[in-house]
Amino acid sequence: MSLIPLLNDIVGAEHVLTGDDATAYLSDWRGRYTGKALAVVRPENAEEIAAIVRLCQQYETPIVTQGGNTGLCGGATPSNKGDAIVILTTRLNKILSIDTDNDTITVQAGCILQAVQEAATNAGRLFPLSLAAEGSCTIGGNLATNAGGTQVLRYGNARDLALGLQVVTAEGEIWNGLRGLRKDNTGYDLRDLFIGSEGTLGIITAATLKLYPQPIAKSTALLAFEDIQKAVKVLSRARQGFGSALTGFELMSAYCLEIVRRIFPQIKVPFAPETAPWYALIEISDSESAEHARNRFEEVIGAAFEDGDIVDAVIAESGQQSHEIWHLRESIPLAEAEIGKGIKNDISIPVSKTAAFIEKTNALLQAQFPGIRHIIFGHLGDGNLHYNIGAPDGQEEGFLDYQKDVYKIVFDSVASFEGSISAEHGIGQLKKDILPDYKDEVELALMRKIKRVLDPNALLNPGKVINSVELY
Amino acid sequence: MSLIPLLNDIVGAEHVLTGDDATAYLSDWRGRYTGKALAVVRPENAEEIAAIVRLCQQYETPIVTQGGNTGLCGGATPSNKGDAIVILTTRLNKILSIDTDNDTITVQAGCILQAVQEAATNAGRLFPLSLAAEGSCTIGGNLATNAGGTQVLRYGNARDLALGLQVVTAEGEIWNGLRGLRKDNTGYDLRDLFIGSEGTLGIITAATLKLYPQPIAKSTALLAFEDIQKAVKVLSRARQGFGSALTGFELMSAYCLEIVRRIFPQIKVPFAPETAPWYALIEISDSESAEHARNRFEEVIGAAFEDGDIVDAVIAESGQQSHEIWHLRESIPLAEAEIGKGIKNDISIPVSKTAAFIEKTNALLQAQFPGIRHIIFGHLGDGNLHYNIGAPDGQEEGFLDYQKDVYKIVFDSVASFEGSISAEHGIGQLKKDILPDYKDEVELALMRKIKRVLDPNALLNPGKVINSVELY
C-alpha cells in the first residue's frame, strides 16, 4: 500500500495536502529555498504525529517538521528530492494549562508565539520571548531553533524559558517531559538537547514554559556614543545600576540611522546627522512605578553623561516617544531591504571584543570589496550583532554572488575572536556545509554520535544542521 | 605492564595515591558509602586527564571523578569492586581568566566554589552560586551535579550559570567548548548534556561562567504565615513587587524553629513559639541603595500584611540582624542532625501544589509511622522542599531501616503531584535503583542510548545515575 492513503487514515484526507495545496509549505518565506514533498500533513496532536513517524520509519520516508515557516536558514523546507513529507504543527494550537502560582504555561507546539504571549497577559503574567515574527511563528519552531529576540538580555533565549517538553522520538514514541519544575536533577538533560536541534533529533509537540510578572513601567532612551568601547562601558554601568531591570540594549551604527532617515522620512530620528558614530536604545522594566523608572534612569544615565561616556541622550517622555524609539530600531532591517539585497550575518562575539571585531572585520572586507556598506546593529547586551553588508553604490548587480567570500572573511574573523557564526537563527541548510570549518572536531564527532543514536535511519529533517553524508 | 606505573608516568608518582593515602577519597563525607580503588590519581590539567582516560580505555578500567567530595548521593565514591581509579580534580585549581566587560570568568574544574566567588568579588562582580559546602566543593562537582543552593530563584542552577565547558570525553579526547557567549545556535547543546550527568558521560575540566553585578544592598525579613497557601500568595506578590530583585524565599515550618530553639538556645528566634505554623525568610537584592531596598520592602511586605496574608513580620534593621535571620535558617539542618538521624528528601513540586502535597504526604506517613516528626524547609521560590522525616520520640533505634518504605510513600506522592524525586542533589548511587520507578520509560530509553553512544565501554562512573546492567 502506498503512503498517502495510510496518512489519510491517520489525520483524515482533508489534512493531507498535495499539489497546489502543498506549495506554500515547500518554500521558505524569503524565497531562498524551495523543495518538494510527497505530501504536507497536518496532524492534530502528538499521538497522530507519533503514528505518522512510525509509518515513515516503515516506509523509510524522511520527515521535515514545520511551524509558522518563518525561519531564516531554510531549516523547515524540504530538499529537492521529493521523498519526504512535511509535518505541519499548526493544528496543535491549544493552550493546555496556565498556573499562575507556579508561574508556568503549558502549550502545544503549534501555538503562535503571540497567542502564548496573549494567554500570559490575560492571566496577568508576562511570557517574555519576543521577536519580529511573533505574529506568525510557532512556539515549537522557537524552541526547535532556540530563538532569541529582543529580551534575551533579561530573560534568556527560548531554551532558558522552557521547563519541560513533550517530544515525539524518531521511533514514533512520545516522551512526556512536560514538567513545570525549576529544579529537577534526575538524569540527563534531554530537554535542552531537543531544544535547538532544529527537528533533527525529535519533534517537539508541547512545552511547559516559564512566566514572569509584568513590569509596572518601562523607560526607553536613545544614547549616542563616540565609539563602541564607550557603549560597552555604559552597558556595564547599566547592568550595575539597573540590575536585572535592564531589559534592552540595542546597538546601531550612524549609518543605520542614516538609511532609516533616507528611506522613511516620516520616522523621527531624534538626533541630527553626524551627532555620533554609534547609538544604542536602552530600556529598563521597572517593578515599582513609572516615576521610579524615570528617576532611576536619569540618575544612571546622567552619571554616565557627566563622566563623558555618552555624547548625547534622548530619554522618552511618554509611551509614544518610547514607541518611536523602538520603531526607529525596528525600521533598520526594513530600510536595509529597501536599499538593496545584502549579505546578512547573525553572529555573536564576547561583548568585550565587539569593538576590535568590528574594526578588524570592516578593514578586511573593505580591502577585498572596496566601498561596501556596513549595516551594523544588534543586541549588544547579548554580544549578538547583525553584521550586515551592502553592495558598494552602483554595484548591486551580482553582489550576492560574493556571499561565500564574504562569509569566509566574516566567519574567519568571528572565529579569531572566539565568537559564533550563528547567534540566534540556527544552522538549517544555510550554514550546514560551513559549520564543520568552524566547529571543534571533537564537538562535531559528539554531535554526529548523538544524531546517529537518536535517529539511526536519518529520517528527521535530513540535510539540516549536520551533513548526513558524514553521518552513516 | 600494569596500570600504576603508567599512571605514574602521566602525573608523577607523588600524585598516584594508594593504601592509606587513598582512604579519604574512598568514602563520601557523610560516611554513607565506602568503596575501593586501584589508585587515586591527581592530574594537573585536561591533557593529563585525557591521557589517563585513554589509558583506562586500554586497560578497561572504570573511572570515578571526584572534586571536593561533598556530594550527598554517593556519586563520587567508587564501588566495592576495587577495579576503578578515582580521578581527583583538585589540582586543576586555576582561575584562567576573567572578563568584566563580557561578565564572564573561566576556571578549571577543581577550583573551590568559594575561590570562584572571591575571584569574582575581587573583580567587582558576583558569581551567585552559593551553597552550604561552598568552602570545600569544586565548581566541577557543582556542574557535574547541576547544583542549586540559595540563590536559584534569581540566578538559576549551576547549569544556568555556565556558558561554556571543556570536557574530556570517554575516548580521552578534549572538547574545547569554553565559549563566553550568551547566544550560540550552532548545533546540539552538548554543554547541558554534560552538566548534571554526574561524570557518567564525560569529565568536565574547565568552565566559562556568567558573572553578575554585585547588589548595592540587601534586605531580609522573616515572615509568619497561617498556612502554606498564604506563603505561596506572598511569594507571588513578592515576584510582582520586587521583580528579579527577589533573591530568596526560604520556607520553614514552626517545628524547624522549635528544634533550633531547643538545640541552639543562643540563636535568636525573633518570634514567640506558636506565632504561626509556617515561616519564610525573604530577601531582596537592590541595585540602587539600602534606603530604597528598605522602603520597597516595607511597601510590598506592608501591603501583604494589611491584606492579611502575613500574620507577623520581622524586618532586619541591620546587616547583623539580616545575618541572624540567615543563620537561623542555616541552623535547621544542624539542629536536625543533633536530634537524631533522619530520612531526608530533596524533592521539588510545582509551587502551586506545595500545600496539597505536604498535607497529603504528611497524612500518608503518619498513617504508616504514627508519631514521626516532619522537618520541612526549603527553597519555596523554586518549588524545592527538603521534606525530611525524623523518628517518633523514643523510637530512633532502627528507624533508618524504614528509609525504603518512607521513600516509597514520599516519592509516590511526589509523582502524583508531578514533582521530582531529586531537585538539586542528583541521583548518584542513592536513587539510581529507584529512578526507573519514577521516570518515563521513553525518557529512560533515551538516557540509555546517550550513555551507550558517549561511553560505549561503560567506564565513566559506572553504577551511578543509570543502572549499567540495563545498559549493554
Automatic annotation (TrEMBL), chains A, B:
What the record says about family reads:
Belongs to the FAD-binding oxidoreductase/transferase type 4 family.
Organism domain of life? Bacteria
Sorted alphabetically, the Gene Ontology BP terms of this entry are: respiratory electron transport chain
Keyword terms, alphabetized: FAD, Flavoprotein
The protein in question is named: FAD-binding oxidoreductase
Q: Which cofactor does it need?
A: FAD
Write down the Pfam families for this protein, in alphabetical order.
FAD-oxidase_C, FAD_binding_4
Q: Where is the FAD-binding PCMH-type domain?
A: 33-214
PANTHER family reported in the protein's UniProt record: BLL6224 PROTEIN, D-2-HYDROXYGLUTARATE DEHYDROGENASE, MITOCHONDRIAL
Cite the source lineage.
Answer: Bacteria, Pseudomonadati, Pseudomonadota, Betaproteobacteria, Burkholderiales
Matches recorded under PROSITE patterns: FAD_PCMH
Q: Which InterPro entries match?
A: FAD-bd_oxidored_4_C, FAD-bd_PCMH, FAD-bd_PCMH-like_sf, FAD-bd_PCMH_sub1, FAD-bd_PCMH_sub2, FAD-linked_Oxase-like_C, FAD-oxidored/transferase_4, Oxid_FAD_bind_N
Q: Which GO terms describe its molecular function?
A: catalytic activity; FAD binding
